[in-house]
Specification:
2 copies of one chain form a homodimer. Chain A has about 375 residues and is of the alpha/beta class. Chain A has 13 helices and 15 strands. A 7-stranded mixed sheet of chain A has the order 2-10-9-8-5-3-4, with helices on both faces. Chain A has a 4-stranded antiparallel sheet with strand order 11-12-15-14. The first copy, chain A, has a two-stranded parallel sheet with strand order 1-13.
Chain lengths: ~375, ~375
């Protein structure tokens, strides 16, 4: 049976037609005036989305590239760092920092929970000699569908001088992040999430404190060197050949984001999450994260006892064209994840729930067809 | 709130990405070898979809253009014709034939019903002097959502020598039509229906009997002249400049149709119709056509008493991005129509029903959210 594709994973997001069309242009000279004008426009709009007055640096890379750039641009080998981890992507920051010779201390929270600001405050208070040079925190942990309260966590850092680094790869542009106002020193994100682009671009913004640390930092870097990106940016350029088509697309996706309005986008993502959670609960499914810490962009769902989440994803994909994400590490056999990030709208949630109901029915899970959909419909109707 | 577009009208259909991509190529010389090779391939594949061994003629035009071509290529002024009409598009054949000086007799059936083969047989039996030169019949009447039984109607023509002309604009490629096997003498269709193209192309196939009539026909024609199209076709060309981009798209849409398989496509459309009808009935809505004559490609629905169908369509479009069709003529204030024609899949029906439920709830119609969706889900689940 013919199917239409629904990419319901926490990135890459579906790419809007307007972005695809913008990308479908002949490649231009990346050292010429047309590119420079476009790139300046892009950088200016990125600052609005990042909610920062500082330059937003663009790296042709996966989001993980910007995480690496974050580490190597502000630290020196032997520096002590505190990595707050609530899942796979928190752990990744620790691994990168360790690989470059930082002394990594992890502050772990159980998967499915958010980081507790009080615990962070307590740990930093105990750092009498201010040995911790940087604190790394994940904004939205896509592996568990949990969003950390960055405003509270930044406040919890108090007057400790450690740099505050936030991985906003899956959140920036979908969940509010007041980079400057909340005192984030370094924030990174990727193209294929809320920015609604195909993968291939990563971004980083640094505060004045972070730039000062950059001067003293001795970790080896060339491609990730923030200074060289900043210098090129001043000329409307990139240090190395950028993926020009993606920059075409980025300009259009930023237009889309600013047309819709950041606050409207945050509200849309919250609505999608509330709809999907209401639908899943109505079907009797258990969610990994509590409502109070639930992500707006991805929802982790426990498969019913006796059902392999891979079976659910296979039927969803093969019969209904709906791609869901699996679980990481020890959650692989326990959960599946529904992404609702980027170019996703309420009707996508209704389709996903309807297909999930049929999938569960096929797997002999006791489900009332339409009950998940109707729970989500009630949420949506209350909005109109 | 951001929306995604669902074009749920009985043509133009949503256009698949592969077709859009095929169209996005530089225009080529329509008198050159590249075009000729492509056009020969297209014509060969059209014959498969038309289920005919005869040439399929392509006109750059709306479907109505091919209806006009049907009239002017086989008739002479003063010829008597019988037009079987069950709605707007049957009436259109009568109007065109009259405009060119044919003596038109209409065989009308109530809107919402199919043509009765026995009534047609009876009328032709009474034509002792064989004055009727042609019988015009609509295969699928999009204005009412009724499909005529062409096989039975062709059989009802018996050994009467009248040419049998079928308007298959909204059916060909979605509802089975055995052009040669059932003895259809002339069949027309359009691009923007089951062929899943943007509008701009119309097609006509003629039997040997129709070609013989063409030689004797004296109605004035230039652009619509079948002989000139046939002569050019023998050289892999068109008599006048064709819309080259649409031909690019047509080649790809024919590939898609043949890959999916005609019988699978017919089954998919039947499933869509059964799903949507089950859902609408579960919501307590009345359908214009009985199940026995219901179209696979469009469903006409009566608005609940006191609710203007335009209100329903407005809310569907503005809140949920779903475009439905209105009613024609006296049905305008009574019905709305849901198209499920061409590039449409079961998940589109689920979205449409879910949105319709919310729309009706907003209009204070007593509806159980999820009940229409679940009725359609049950139909779909029974298929898997």
């Amino acid at each position: 049976m013919l199917k239409k594709p629904y990419l319901m994973i926490p990135g890459p997001t579906p790419v809007p037609d307007r972005v695809l069309q913008a990308m479908h242009r002949p490649v231009i000279n990346h050292r010429g005036p047309e590119y420079e004008a476009m790139f300046r426009d892009v950088c200016c709009k990125l600052q609005q989305v990042f909610k920062t007055k500082n330059e937003v640096l663009t790296f042709p890379a996966a989001g993980t590239g910007a995480m690496e750039a974050a580490v190597v641009n502000i630290l020196s080998p032997g520096d002590k760092v505190l990595v707050v981890s609530i899942g796979v992507f928190g752990d990744r920051f620790a691994e990168i920092a360790g690989r470059y010779g930082a002394k990594v201390e992890k502050l772990d929270f159980p998967w499915g929970e958010a980081a507790a600001p009080a615990v962070l405050a307590d740990r930093l208070n105990k750092d009498k000699h201010k040995e911790i040079k940087a604190v790394f925190i994940t904004h939205n942990e896509t592996s568990t569908g949990v969003t950390n309260d960055i405003k509270e966590l930044m406040a919890a850092c108090g007057d400790h001088p450690a740099l505050r680094v936030v991985d906003a790869v899956s959140s920036l542009g979908a969940i509010n992040l007041e980079t400057d106002a909340w005192g984030v020193d370094l924030v990174v994100t990727g193209a294929q999430k809320a920015l609604m682009l195909p993968p291939g671009l990563a971004f980083m913004a640094m505060s004045e404190r972070a730039w000062a640390a950059n001067k003293a930092s001795t970790m080896p870097r060339f491609y990730w060197d923030a200074q060289s990106v900043r210098k090129s940016l001043a000329k409307g350029q990139n240090p190395y050949t950028p993926p020009v088509s993606l920059i075409f697309g980025l300009q259009e996706s930023l237009n889309l984001l600013l047309e819709e309005g950041l606050e409207n986008i945050f509200a849309r993502h919250r609505l999608l999450a509330v709809m999907v959670r209401a639908g899943l609960k109505a079907l009797g499914l258990e969610l990994l994260a509590a409502d109070s810490v639930a992500s707006s962009v991805v929802t982790a769902v426990k498969a019913p006892p006796g059902i392999d989440p891979k079976q659910i994803r296979k039927i969803m994909r093969e019969r209904y064209g709906i791609t869901l994400a699996g679980g990481h590490k020890h959650l692989e056999k326990e959960i599946f994840r529904i992404g609702h990030l980027g170019y996703v709208v309420p009707t996508d949630i209704l389709v996903t729930l309807a297909a999930l109901e049929m999938t569960l029915a096929e797997l002999k899970f006791d489900v009332v067809l339409g009950s998940g959909v109707s729970a989500a419909q009630k949420i949506l109707l209350a909005e109109v």
